[in-house]
Q: What sequence folds into this?
């Protein structure tokens, strides 16, 4: 099959990148044009990705950049999971686009956002570690800028801490990559997948995985490299926090999952991820119990949820990836929605008293998300939790401990989420007047209602959704197909792939 | 479309009507009619004496089918549920609703919450596998939460506490489901039922702990009972009556489905607790017995009529479980029958108490008294109710309790029998306090002009009282339902007649018993009115004690702080150990949370990073 321009997977990476650099010059020519460019690019990206999905029907394919075949050239690998995550990027960027902003600051934010989009899309589509590392660094730079964009003193401090941690994490990841390269002589994932069983199943290989896990874990909010999370989310604009917590973290997780599935397919590596995930989950949810304001509560809860994502992905085979995907996408929708609400819900939790009575829709959405987050049937959160628990119950004792941990922290989660719900619907306090009086807030535009609708739609369409995810998961764990796609049988040169 | 579909449809329709038109005044009456229609739809399924009927809808998620069906057990519980919904909606429909609105509450929310509760239970009771069971379970939990959270700030706190307990229980159930799935490869009742006999004793204990614990939370079994009384008591009137009558029994329903029916009482008897002479059944029976005793004596301490009754609700649940795990025909029938009898009793009692609250504005037992002449019919309802609650003839509660006592004796469990009797003693003491402090004794000045409860509230109350008496006078019909349930879940079936239990070793015929009792009363009345009976009407505030006239603002000694003397004796026995445990758990979570916060707030995150990296490299090398 020929790769038409409309389904060229380089476009979703290149277009936003170009946009990011051209936005400032364009803004000098025409402010209106500059405002239109960003959304237009994102929509174009989305269209390309959709076209690709429709045309390919889920079959994976690889694209060699510049015509150099792998393992020498750079490869983009496009399969279901990559497309799914890649499509999520422009979608959520559009949802949290700074529509209202004007002037220099808005242009700068748009440019940074486009840079972020380009780099995290790259994370999803890249087929080799070198590219992944470059995109990861690019995403880090973009996110530093975004976090500190509405500069306050606290935001700067938080950003510096984030930057330090991120830099050290990257360094560790780089060491891990270096080990990998020394041992195998390649950074192409497909090539690594072929070589791994003979060269990497030893302590050094494991050490390299551990280093990369920590390195990429910084953005994936993995314990213990997630201590930047609460302060950054509490001080950054809610839209940015939403993107970092919802979207960027998942892309970092995807990188780790690719590594685990293709290269480090060994129980010790999975176990390491399970343990760190479990500790992260427990520590995050426990911290959220004492959180005094909504953004911090969300930040800690996000750490907890990502812990569960790591736990789920650490399980072998299709069930593991299915469980991970389910939790990851559920969290993507719910936490993004929560941060959208958080844009208006600053201040202490007590100051939110009676908010649910003043803004019925916002209150209802909060409760809906909370119910799904803790896993009340028939909402999607229940099914994700069930998949994870059933998968965990089928393995060893460590997994059973993780299962028990999930159950316990969910009870804690239910308590703190509904403690706030009771505050939201409290009656006996008169609505605060003056500057304290909040407009009945939905936060960022219609994002929260939209995501609530998505959640409800997924509830109704739970059967096709789970079946679809299962297909994605089955394809993801098919290592042989990955290798075959990148290195097609010799009779078919890569240039005229069919 | 099967009859079960229509039942779901009517129940769902009730909820939709409440959602759409709950703000209109007339909707309340329409809803009462709709609950009646649900009852008709339930009867129409004919699953009590006939075969189970499956709903025609269902869904398969991730290869797991979810389906619903009704059988005799579902019918029995659904009958009580819908009946309770019917009477509570009626009670709420007239004057109560107006007063509720005047207090600044939304009638819409109340109607929606009640309809949601009934619908959720209809769904739960129809569950045909563990997935639909869990779905229904959660629906019921959250619907109850909604109903509980309707009141003011106190009810919010109580509801949150309930939620924490209920959700922890749900998580235990979910964990058990995941484990069961690995053993049975399915969550269907049939496959799980087939897999359970193959489980080892250890696995079964884990399962019992998780499932039993989860179900026990909803039932308020010790040590998970603390949430129930405040949550139920703080719920607005008819809602409280509904929750008290049936909601807590959902735990019992699940216990019957899983533990009695799938595991079986025989297996529990075989399952010994290591290093002791006790079996699994003994353990459950003693938990049940302690659940009877401790909450009942806590009820004795209460000074709020709502709390007093709510605490009794916990204790009565213990009787039901006790009868069930005895496992013989009479005992298990007694346990099941007590569900029905108690539902009638508790609904009537709470309605009477809330009628008093409606008229006087308080349920504080130290601020009431002497209302018998002001609200005679309400008094009568409460009287019927407490006789039944205490398990005395001729009311319904006597029959079921008699059967439980009897089975404890015939099965050779004298200690449990004594425990049950001790519980009943506490019940009698506390219900006497209830009726005395509300209706007897000295009338308060401010209540001199209190009128009888409004008719819209009285009718359902009186109807329930009649049922309480009829179910005591002729327990046959209810026993026939119970016998069907026993057949379905594999328990030995009780032999019954219209008047009661048929047993070669001595049965019970309530028709005779009540006739003799009434004849005795008749003789007493003839003696009193025929020979002595020179009564003189005086005003109620015209009080004398010890030959002295008492003005109305002087309280004679025991109209408040009732049982001060008794409490002087047994007061030190109340240790609040469970509250202490609850606080302890909360404290531990808080402490851990504080520690975790410290980790995340630490100034030097890089230290952690470095330490972890080193640790991981060491781990990788080893």
A:
């Amino acid at each position: 099959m020929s790769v038409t321009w409309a389904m060229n997977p380089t476009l979703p990476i290149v277009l936003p990148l170009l946009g990011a650099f051209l936005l400032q010059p364009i803004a000098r020519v025409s402010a209106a044009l500059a405002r239109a460019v960003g959304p237009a690019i994102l929509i174009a990206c989305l269209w390309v990705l959709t076209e690709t999905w429709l045309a390919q029907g889920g079959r994976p394919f690889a694209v060699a950049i510049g015509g150099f075949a792998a393992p020498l050239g750079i490869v983009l690998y496009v399969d279901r999971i990559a497309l799914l995550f890649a499509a999520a990027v422009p979608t959520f960027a559009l949802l949290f686009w700074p529509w209202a902003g004007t002037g220099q600051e808005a242009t700068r934010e748009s440019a940074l956002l486009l840079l972020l989009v380009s780099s995290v899309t790259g994370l999803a589509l890249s087929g080799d570690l070198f590219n992944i590392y470059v995109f990861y660094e690019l995403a880090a730079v973009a996110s530093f800028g975004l976090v500190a964009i509405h500069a306050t003193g606290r935001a700067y401090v938080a950003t510096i801490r984030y930057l330090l941690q991120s830099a050290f994490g990257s360094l560790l990841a780089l060491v891990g990559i270096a080990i990998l390269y020394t041992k195998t002589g390649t950074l192409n994932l497909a090539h690594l997948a072929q070589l791994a069983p003979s060269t990497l199943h030893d302590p050094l290989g494991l050490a390299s995985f551990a280093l990369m896990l920590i390195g990429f874990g910084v953005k994936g909010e993995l314990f213990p490299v997630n201590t930047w999370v609460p302060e950054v989310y509490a001080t950054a604009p809610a839209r940015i926090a939403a993107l970092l917590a919802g979207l960027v973290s998942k892309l970092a997780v995807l990188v780790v999952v690719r590594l685990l599935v293709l290269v480090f397919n060994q129980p010790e590596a999975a176990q390491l991820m399970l343990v760190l995930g479990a500790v992260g989950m427990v520590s995050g949810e426990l911290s959220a119990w004492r959180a005094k304001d909504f953004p911090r509560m969300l930040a800690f809860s996000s750490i907890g949820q990502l812990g569960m994502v790591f736990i789920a992905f650490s399980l072998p085979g299709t069930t593991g990836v299915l469980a991970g995907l389910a939790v990851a996408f559920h969290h993507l929708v719910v936490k993004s929605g929560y941060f959208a609400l958080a844009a208006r819900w600053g201040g202490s939790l007590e100051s939110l008293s009676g908010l649910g009575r003043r803004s019925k829709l916002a209150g209802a959405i909060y409760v809906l998300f909370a119910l799904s987050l803790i896993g009340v049937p028939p909402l999607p959160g229940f099914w994700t939790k069930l998949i994870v628990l059933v998968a965990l119950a089928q393995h060893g004792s460590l997994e059973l401990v993780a299962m028990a941990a999930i159950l316990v922290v969910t009870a804690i989660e239910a308590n703190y989420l509904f403690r706030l719900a009771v505050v939201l619907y409290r009656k006996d306090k008169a609505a605060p007047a003056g500057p304290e009086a909040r407009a009945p807030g939905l936060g960022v535009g219609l994002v929260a209602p939209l995501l609530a609708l998505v959640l409800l739609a997924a509830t109704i369409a739970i059967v096709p959704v789970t079946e679809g995810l299962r297909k994605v998961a089955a394809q993801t764990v098919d290592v042989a197909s990955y290798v075959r796609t990148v290195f097609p049988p010799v009779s078919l040169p890569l240039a005229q792939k069919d | 479309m099967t009859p079960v579909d229509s039942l779901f449809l009517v129940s769902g329709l009730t909820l939709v009507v409440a959602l759409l038109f709950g703000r209109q005044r007339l909707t309340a009456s329409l809803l009462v009619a709709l609950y009646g229609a649900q009852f008709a739809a339930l009867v129409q399924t004919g699953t009590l004496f006939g075969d189970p009927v499956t709903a025609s809808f269902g869904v398969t998620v991730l290869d797991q089918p979810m389906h619903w069906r009704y059988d005799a057990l579902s019918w029995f519980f659904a009958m009580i549920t819908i009946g309770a919904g019917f009477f509570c909606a009626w009670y709420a429909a007239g004057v109560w609703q107006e007063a509720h609105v005047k207090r600044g509450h939304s009638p819409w929310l109340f109607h929606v919450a009640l309809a949601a509760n009934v619908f959720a239970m209809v769904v739960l009771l129809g569950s045909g596998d563990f997935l639909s069971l869990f779905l229904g379970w959660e629906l019921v939990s959250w619907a109850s939460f909604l109903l509980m959270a309707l009141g003011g700030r106190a009810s919010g706190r109580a509801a949150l506490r309930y939620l924490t307990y209920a959700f922890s229980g749900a998580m235990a159930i979910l964990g058990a489901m995941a484990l069961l799935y690995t053993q049975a490869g399915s969550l269907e009742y049939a496959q799980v039922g087939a897999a359970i006999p193959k489980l080892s004793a250890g696995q079964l204990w884990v399962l019992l702990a998780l499932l039993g614990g989860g179900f026990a939370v909803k039932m308020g079994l010790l040590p998970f009972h603390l949430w129930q009384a405040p949550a139920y008591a703080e719920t607005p009137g008819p809602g409280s009556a509904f929750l008290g009558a049936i909601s807590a029994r959902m735990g019992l329903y699940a216990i019957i489905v899983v533990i009695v029916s799938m595991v079986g009482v025989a297996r529990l008897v075989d399952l010994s607790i290591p290093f002791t002479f006790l079996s699994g059944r003994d353990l459950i029976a003693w938990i049940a017995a302690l659940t009877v005793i401790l909450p009942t004596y806590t009820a004795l301490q209460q000074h709020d009529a709502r709390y007093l009754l709510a605490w009794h609700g916990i204790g009565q649940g213990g009787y039901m479980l006790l009868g069930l795990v005895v496992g013989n025909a009479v005992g298990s029938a007694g346990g099941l029958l007590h569900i029905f009898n108690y539902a009638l009793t508790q609904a009537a009692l709470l309605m009477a108490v809330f009628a008093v609250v409606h008229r006087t504005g308080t349920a504080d037992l130290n601020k009431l008294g002497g209302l018998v002449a002001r609200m005679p019919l309400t008094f009568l309802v409460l009287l019927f109710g407490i006789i039944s609650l205490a398990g005395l003839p001729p009311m319904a509660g006597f029959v079921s309790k008699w059967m439980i006592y009897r089975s404890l004796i015939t099965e050779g469990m004298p200690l449990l029998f004594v425990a049950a009797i001790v519980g009943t003693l506490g019940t009698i003491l506390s219900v006497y306090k209830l009726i005395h402090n509300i209706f007897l004794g000295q009338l308060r000045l401010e209540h001199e002009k209190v009128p009888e409860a409004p008719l819209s509230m009285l009718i359902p109350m009186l109807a329930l009282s009649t049922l309480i008496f009829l179910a005591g006078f002729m327990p046959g019909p209810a026993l026939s339902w119970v016998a069907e349930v026993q057949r379905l879940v594999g328990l030995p079936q009780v032999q019954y007649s219209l008047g009661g239990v048929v047993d070669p070793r001595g049965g019970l015929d309530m028709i005779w018993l009540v006739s003799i009792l009434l004849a005795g009363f008749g003789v007493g009345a003839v003696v009193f009115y025929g020979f002595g009976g020179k009564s003189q009407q005086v005003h109620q505030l015209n009080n004398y004690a010890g030959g002295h006239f008492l003005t109305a603002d002087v309280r004679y000694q025991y109209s408040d702080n009732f049982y001060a003397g008794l409490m002087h004796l047994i007061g030190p026995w109340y240790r609040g150990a469970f509250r202490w445990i609850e606080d302890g758990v909360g404290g531990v979570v808080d402490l851990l949370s504080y520690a975790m916060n410290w980790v995340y707030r630490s100034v030097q995150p890089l230290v952690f990073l470095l330490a972890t990296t080193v640790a991981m490299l060491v781990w990788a090398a080893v």
